[in-house]
Amino acid sequence: MTVEGGLAEPEELEPAQGSLDLADPSDAWTVADWEAQAAAVLRKSKRLREDDPDSQVWQKLTRKTLDGIEVTPLGTKADLDGLETSGRPARQGAWDIRAQIDATDARLANEEALVDLTGGVTSLWLTGATDYEQVLKDVLLDLAPVVLERGDADAFLEYAEGRALHPDTNLGIPAADATVEVAHRAQAAGVRAFVVDASAIHDRGASDVQELAWSVAAGTSYLRHLTEQGLGVDEAAALVEFRYAATDEQFATIAKLRAARRLWARVLELSGGSGEMRQHAVTSRPMMSKYDPWVNMLRTTIAAFAAGVGGADSVTVLPFDGPLGRPDAFGRRVARNTNHLLIDESHVARVADPAGGAYAVEKLTDDLARAAWELFGRLDDGADLDAEISATVEERERQIATRKRPITGLTEFPDLGETLPVREGDGDPVRRYGASFEALRDEPVAQPVHLATLGTVAQHTARATFATNLLAAGGISVATEAGDHRVVCIAGTDAAYDEQGAEAAAKARRDGAEWVIVAGQPRDWADDSCALGVDALDFLTRTREKLS
């Protein structure tokens, strides 16, 4: 075989006997072929009419993010025409597995730290630590980086004096509080000093673009401040780490981390510097749910996968039981093993940039980077980020209330009979996306709604199940037996409503019902209705008022 430049000559690359020839014309699919297949599915589900053109699938299946960025259902080569595709990960191999530890109880924190390190965690993120002698007892600081948050940096450096520290150790001082004195002390110790924590903005409800723009603004301000005090741009950049939230929207998370590197590279370029962004990704706190917390394992797995694929240098998976109180040993074990499964079992880290070249990811990366840079410019001109975040929160709340942004186990498929795990202390104080529904579940209604069905089981099951699940999302149970019920929900087909609905409602009222709901579109014989797209929060609040 002749080899030139490390590549075999094309004529010598013969396909194996019986293998698929990927260049065979019969294997080629065009965009029009995809449109036809997708249109057939949409027509079957009544989302397209028979006379609608196949090309309308793009309009039907394209969705918009909270930033107004369109995400098409299919990435194509044309998406990248004239676009920048930078932002690729610098990390090679496995990412750092970072465990977060509440260090306010020093003895308990030390126990958790040693268990996590023994279980394969490679760095520690300590919050609220002061007694480092106890918290870090038996921790090998040259092997395990320590990152502080709301800790005493002076006390840590005093404790660590004379010890070898891992270079990824970070004093955790907010970039807004950076001083050249602290920078010099960190340099002398061979560690980082500062953090741009964009996850704090995410926790307030910010969108991906807002999180990115804030981080660029904070990073730029940090550079400007330290360089004015005599530090070089590259020196200052080497001392800071950026923290971002990773959510269960995997493509958005992948693109966000890639866009962040592109944005920071541009800032450094304009500042006359260079270098790579150090990224720490932490699974989103507000995406978690207190109810059916086991689903949080799935959410954090997707988020960790996206963070790894997106190129984060360090990844923290928060325990699934964090919303309930201080995570126990099982919750912490599942959290660290999530990373191990992705790295050691799924081999996600073996590829430097798994999403690189994927049309949809490259396009989304470019869209996020451009939108964040535009917002960064407006922030520099005095734009009100708080107002923009408030608008995002309002829109997210609307989508959750109408269940266009479902939360499994809370707004969808809730289990009123579940027994929640018991944990010590209070749960994570961040306001979760499903907080409004959690508040309803916190105070379940004692009086059930009577579910009155019309027709056969096959005829009423779909709407009866829909109504039952919707009511359960508001802490309302249903009863199928007749009795003295204040609220009745009638479920059946449209044909059954036409024939029997008015009489069924009248009978319910004769039996003592004060409020009649129809599962489906509104009817003149019903007081209220519930169907797809209804504002579930408003509907549930009205129903609870009638029951009480």
From TrEMBL:
<dbReference type="InterPro" id="IPR006099">
    <property type="entry name" value="MeMalonylCoA_mutase_a/b_cat"/>
</dbReference>
<dbReference type="GO" id="GO:0004494">
    <property type="term" value="F:methylmalonyl-CoA mutase activity"/>
</dbReference>
<dbReference type="GO" id="GO:0031419">
    <property type="term" value="F:cobalamin binding"/>
</dbReference>
<dbReference type="InterPro" id="IPR016176">
    <property type="entry name" value="Cbl-dep_enz_cat"/>
</dbReference>
<protein>
    <submittedName>
        <fullName>Methylmalonyl-CoA mutase</fullName>
    </submittedName>
</protein>
<feature type="domain" description="Methylmalonyl-CoA mutase alpha/beta chain catalytic">
    <location>
        <begin position="189"/>
        <end position="443"/>
    </location>
</feature>
<dbReference type="Pfam" id="PF01642">
    <property type="entry name" value="MM_CoA_mutase"/>
</dbReference>
<comment type="subunit">
    <text>Heterodimer of an alpha and a beta chain.</text>
</comment>
<dbReference type="GO" id="GO:0019678">
    <property type="term" value="P:propionate metabolic process, methylmalonyl pathway"/>
</dbReference>
<feature type="region of interest" description="Disordered">
    <location>
        <begin position="1"/>
        <end position="24"/>
    </location>
</feature>
<dbReference type="GO" id="GO:0005737">
    <property type="term" value="C:cytoplasm"/>
</dbReference>
